[in-house]
């Protein structure tokens, strides 16, 4: 019986790592290189245009914030007149604050210059009467140094005036930027609605409703943020005024206004105002008023930063308190005080746009 042998299969040929279909063509390489070059040029242009883009961003935020009062006044007057009235109030506010804070600051500075030698002598007497502090004084001689500096403080007021004049020059030099921002904001208030309608007309009909909803929600979020920030400032100023009255600190009204305005800056504003007010209490009723104010400022700052501010902004913007804190930290790190102020409405706007985009991608009904 013969056995038929089946021929052995040919050995498997090694497969290439990349098939001809998956290998990169010259056209794909050129496309990738062009994309990289375009992105690099775009980033470079953004860097070069960072100043005017910042002006546009500030003007847009200001226009959205002022649109609420303008729309309210427009019910009883023409829109142009309403914009002019809102601008008049906006421009008058810095002068009113200067008139409110200027005389107290000058009075406090003169009082400090005249009374600081006496304060230094009192401190020396207190140190000499305390055995522990007296030992430190013998080793470091800090009270004698303080008394010598206190005697020379009045002569240094002229130097302070020179510094203040330099600050004034810096403020004047920034007026051009302020004027540009205000002009851009005025154009946005006057023509912004028409620009939005023109953009919407250029979209497909199925996108118009979503875009309108995003724009309305963003505008409402910024308006709610401004209202919430003003409420936080009102709470901080009112409570600060009550505490300053109880402690008998002079100029309680202007200092309370300062505390309220500083609270508009999330996280760091209230702390800065508390330090300034604490310095004032040192020269009014030290150490009782200073200790009492320090305790109040520490407690209130924790309550404002972790309870009042997040809760009010969460209800106004429907943003989680954690997101509020992170947005403020990121914004202040990137753009300083201005970034801290606009970080929260920016986070809310991004959240609104992202939610609509996800609904669009998931195919949800408009």
Give the topology string: H per helix, E per strand: HHHHHHHHHHHH
Distance between the termini: 81 Å
Calculate the mean pLDDT score and round it.
76
Our estimate of the beta-strand percent is under 5%
Radius of gyration over all CA atoms, rounded: 32 Å
Structural class: mainly alpha
Largest sheet geometry: none
* Fraction in helix: over 70%
Number of DSSP helical runs: 12
Shape: elongated
How many β-strand runs?
A: 0
Please explain how this structure is put together:
- This protein has about 375 residues and is mainly alpha-helical.
- The chain is built from 12 helices and no strands.
- It has helices spanning about 25-50, 50-75, 80-130, 130-140, 140-150, 155-175, 175-200, 205-245, 250-260, 270-280, 290-315, 320-360.
- α8 (about 205-245) runs antiparallel to α11, α8 runs antiparallel to α12 and α9 (about 250-260) packs antiparallel against α10 (about 270-280).
- It starts with about 25 loop residues before the first helix and ends in a 5-residue tail after the last helix.
- The relative contact order is 0.07.
- The model is unreliable at about 15-20 and about 165 (pLDDT under 50).
């Amino acid at each position: 019986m013969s056995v038929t042998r089946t021929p052995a299969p040919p050995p498997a040929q090694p497969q290439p790592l990349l098939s001809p279909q998956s290998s990169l063509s010259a056209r794909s390489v050129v496309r990738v290189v062009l994309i990289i070059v375009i992105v690099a040029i775009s980033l470079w242009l953004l860097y070069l245009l960072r100043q005017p883009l910042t002006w546009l961003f500030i003007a847009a935020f200001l226009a959205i914030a002022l649109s609420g009062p303008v729309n309210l006044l427009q019910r009883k007057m023409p829109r142009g007149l309403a914009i002019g009235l809102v601008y008049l109030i906006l421009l008058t506010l810095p002068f009113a604050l200067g008139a409110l804070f200027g005389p107290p600051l000058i009075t406090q500075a003169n009082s400090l210059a005249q009374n600081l030698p006496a304060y230094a002598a009192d401190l020396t007497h207190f140190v000499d009467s305390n055995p522990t502090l007296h030992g430190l004084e013998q080793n470091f001689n800090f009270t004698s140094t303080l008394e010598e500096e206190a005697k020379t403080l009045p002569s240094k007021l002229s130097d302070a005036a020179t510094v203040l004049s330099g600050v004034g020059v810096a403020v004047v030099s920034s007026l051009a930027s302020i004027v540009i921002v205000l002009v851009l904001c005025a154009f946005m208030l006057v023509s912004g609605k028409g620009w939005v309608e023109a953009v919407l007309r250029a979209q497909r009909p199925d996108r118009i409703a979503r875009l309108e909803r995003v724009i309305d929600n963003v505008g409402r979020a910024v308006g709610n943020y401004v209202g919430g920030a003003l409420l936080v400032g009102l709470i901080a100023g009112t409570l600060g005024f009550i505490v300053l009255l109880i402690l008998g600190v002079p100029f309680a009204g202007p200092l309370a206004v300062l505390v309220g305005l500083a609270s508009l800056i999330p996280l760091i504003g209230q702390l800065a105002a508390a330090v300034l007010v604490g310095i004032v209490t040192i020269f009014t009723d030290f150490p009782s008023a200073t200790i009492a104010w320090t305790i109040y400022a520490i407690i209130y700052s924790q309550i404002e930063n972790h309870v009042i501010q997040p809760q009010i902004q969460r209800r106004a913007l429907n943003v989680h308190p954690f997101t509020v804190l992170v947005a403020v930290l990121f914004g202040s790190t990137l753009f300083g005080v201005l970034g801290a102020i606009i970080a929260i409405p920016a986070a809310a706007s991004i959240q609104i746009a992202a939610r609509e985009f996800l609904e669009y991608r998931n195919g949800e009904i408009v």
